[in-house]
């Protein structure tokens, strides 16, 4: 096993770290207070080429690998989880599914613009009555000549009010269940498509989160992403990608909590000494560091499998579950280390605490990830597809053939 980063990965990490420190950190508090999307920061991220990082060169991208992508995501989240959400949605929930399932025309039409930041994307799966139970889609898509007509509502959609294109999952034939679902690339200026921000929220205040409404939205058949009936498959692929970036973001939250706690613990005095010299404070720091390092390696393991092109639903679920919950523990400890000041919005611990809370809710709640992991372990449902070797070590040993490639 090789734990070294290659030159390109190191370079991308440095690039993201510098950007996060110079451009995101200085405005994170103000953006959180204003609770408004920062268009100026968005343009800077776009100009730097962050949104095109994983795209192949033919679409204007830089083809960075998943390890570099994870490190970039971590760095952005270390500074600001709201900005990380924007970044993850654009790349993992919109660009990657288009890259995987799009026709050549769809790729040429959308990927260069998403990569340059000329347009913003969002991913609409969740509905008022279909969250964890994503198969219970009520949004309908009815065939009408060369078009489908979409009707329904989506909720909790990141980037929903600022997006130019929405990847929408809809049901074309209820009697077919999952197999009746289709994915569509819907341009948000299509008549009948409207969005409304969900406000106020507990955290991620400068990230746009919206409800989407579709009232007889006509979408040309050429805008279907994937084949008819592949909507659920497309959605699950999106979640595999999105969960990975949420896990990487959670590592960034942990690192951010460690950074602020280290500084505070070595400045704040009590009983005539630095609080960092008390062993009970050291215990909290040690727990944060151990969680952060363990989580980072889980994310990099998923990244490694993704780089190899093998299915990684199980490993990504483990990374997402562990990192999200470890980020909660880290934010809780950061507030504790800051004492009463941890309860004040004038100090950063409160923001990490609020922003970190969503990590175990979106892209599969912790309960859903526990279901995926336990059902895989018990042989009830193999997360990586029928016949996939069970443990990651089996998979990486090369002794067992990989039945499914994603
Ligand atoms: C800030 C934010 C941004 C989001 N962005 C997006 C986005 O861009 N696109 C998108 O499509 N969605 C998005 N979501 C939606 C998110 O993915 C859902 O909220 C999530 O999947 C949970 O669904 P729900 O809210 O309907 O909760 P429910 O599914 O109703 O769950 C409620 C509770 O019941 C538990 N539960 C449900 N089923 C089971 C079960 N089988 N076993 C055990 N426990 C269970 C859950 O774990 C949870 O604790 C976002 C959410 C938030 C908060």
The CATH topology annotation of the largest domain reads as: Butyryl-CoA Dehydrogenase, subunit A, domain 3
* Spans of at least 5 consecutive residues with low confidence: none
Report the radius of gyration as a whole number of Å.
21 Å
- How helical, in percent, are the residues? 40-55%
By secondary-structure content and strand pairing, the structural class works out as alpha+beta
How far do the termini sit from each other? 22 Å
Major β-sheet profile = 4 strands, mixed
Mean pLDDT: 95
Structural description of this entry:
By secondary structure, this protein is α+β, with helices and mostly antiparallel strands. The chain has 3 domains: 7-120, Butyryl-Coa Dehydrogenase, subunit A, domain 1 (Orthogonal Bundle), CATH 1.10.540.10; 122-231, Butyryl-CoA Dehydrogenase, subunit A, domain 2; 237-397, Butyryl-CoA Dehydrogenase, subunit A, domain 3, CATH 1.20.140. 50% of the residues lie in helices and 14% in strands. The strands form 3 sheets. It has a 4-stranded mixed sheet. A hairpin with a 2-residue loop joins strand 9 (269-270) and strand 10. The chain is globular. It starts with 6 loop residues before the first helix and ends in a 9-residue tail after the last helix. It binds flavin-adenine dinucleotide (FAD). Residues 89, 123-126, 131-132, 156-158, 204, 209, 358, 361-363, 365, 367-368, 371 line the site of flavin-adenine dinucleotide (FAD).
């Amino acid at each position: 096993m090789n734990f070294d980063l290659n030159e390109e990965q190191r370079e991308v990490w440095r690039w993201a770290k510098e950007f996060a420190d110079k451009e995101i950190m200085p405005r994170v508090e103000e953006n959180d207070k204003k609770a408004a999307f920062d268009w100026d920061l968005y343009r800077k991220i776009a100009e730097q080429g962050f949104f095109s990082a994983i795209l192949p060169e033919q679409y204007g991208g830089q083809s960075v690998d998943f390890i570099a992508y994870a490190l970039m995501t971590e760095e952005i989240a270390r500074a600001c989880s709201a900005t990380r959400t924007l970044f993850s949605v654009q790349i993992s929930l919109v660009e990657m599914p288009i890259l995987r399932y799009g026709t050549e025309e769809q790729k040429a039409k959308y990927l260069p613009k998403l990569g340059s930041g000329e347009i913003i994307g969002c991913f609409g799966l969740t509905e008022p009555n279909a969250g964890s139970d994503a198969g219970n889609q009520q949004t309908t898509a009815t065939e009408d000549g060369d078009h489908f007509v979409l009707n329904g509502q989506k909720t909790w959609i990141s980037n929903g009010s600022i997006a130019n294109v929405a990847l929408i999952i809809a049901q074309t034939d209820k009697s077919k269940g999952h197999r009746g679902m289709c994915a569509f690339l819907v341009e948000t200026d299509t008549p009948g498509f409207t969005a409304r921000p969900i406000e106020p929220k507990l955290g991620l205040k400068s990230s746009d989160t919206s409800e989407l409404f579709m009232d007889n939205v006509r979408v040309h058949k050429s805008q279907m992403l994937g084949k008819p009936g592949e909507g659920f498959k497309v959605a699950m692929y999106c979640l595999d990608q999105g969960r990975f970036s949420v896990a990487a973001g959670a590592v960034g939250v942990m690192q951010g909590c460690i950074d602020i706690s280290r500084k505070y613990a070595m400045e704040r005095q009590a009983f005539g000494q630095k609080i960092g010299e008390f062993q009970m404070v050291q215990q909290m720091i040690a727990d944060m560091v151990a969680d952060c390092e363990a989580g980072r390696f889980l994310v990099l393991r998923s990244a490694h499998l993704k780089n190899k092109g093998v299915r990684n639903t199980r490993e990504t679920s483990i990374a997402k579950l562990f990192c999200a919950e470890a980020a909660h523990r880290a934010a809780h400890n950061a507030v504790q280390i800051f004492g009463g000041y941890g309860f004040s919005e004038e100090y950063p611990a409160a923001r990490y605490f609020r922003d970190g809370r969503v990590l175990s809710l979106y892209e599969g709640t912790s309960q859903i990830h526990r279901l995926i992991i336990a059902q895989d372990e018990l042989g009830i449902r193999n997360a990586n597809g029928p016949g996939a070797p069970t443990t990651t070590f089996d998979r990486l040993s090369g002794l067992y053939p990989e039945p499914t490639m994603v």
